[in-house]
Design a protein that fits this description.
By secondary structure, this protein is mainly alpha-helical. It has eight helices and two strands. It is elongated, with a radius of gyration of 17 Å.
Length: 163
């Protein structure tokens, strides 16, 4: 097998990222809404809040809260226990939300990754973790930020790749 340059891999990551983002615009949802549905499908019940989703994504709470509210308006999420307000309100997928996830466009990626054997998945996960950490640590001007421990998101991605 021939060696693949880092710049070639970077272009593949960029193309993959763009493709993933593009097919997130489906079935009347935006990519952020698909991400939220997926998160609420696997998160522990006490982590099914807008605040926890914002932490997972590394985003500001305002836009995430609006995404959660929109999904509730669409009937895809519901308030679980009637307690809590806004950011701390626990939510869950409705049956309509579970049905919508059955048509998740991410299924094509899951199918592609399912063709990798265990060793390939481990190598792929390690590589993606490094790319994710670098992307999260880079400032817009390209200057790296101070080193930080792997994010929860990177750890979850690694765990998901090591069934």
């Amino acid at each position: 097998m021939t060696s693949i340059s880092a710049s070639t891999l970077a272009r593949l990551v960029e193309q993959t990222s763009r493709a993933l983002h593009s097919f997130g615009f489906s079935e009347g949802l935006y990519p952020a809404q698909w991400t939220a549905l997926r998160y609420f499908a696997w998160a522990e019940p006490d982590q099914r809040t807008a605040s926890a989703l914002a932490r997972f994504q590394g985003l500001a709470i305002g836009p995430v809260t609006r995404t959660v509210r929109t999904l509730m308006t669409k009937g895809l999420l519901e308030n679980v226990d009637g307690r809590g307000r806004g950011r701390s309100r626990r939510v869950a997928l409705t049956q309509a939300g579970r049905d919508r996830l059955a048509g998740d466009p991410m299924g094509a990626i899951v199918s592609a990754l399912d063709t990798l054997d265990a060793k390939e998945r481990q190598g792929f996960a390690r590589g993606l973790e490094g790319v994710l950490r670098a992307a999260q640590g880079a400032q817009p001007d390209g200057v790296p930020r101070a080193a930080e421990p792997p994010s929860r998101k990177a750890r979850i991605l690694a765990d998901a790749a090591h069934p």
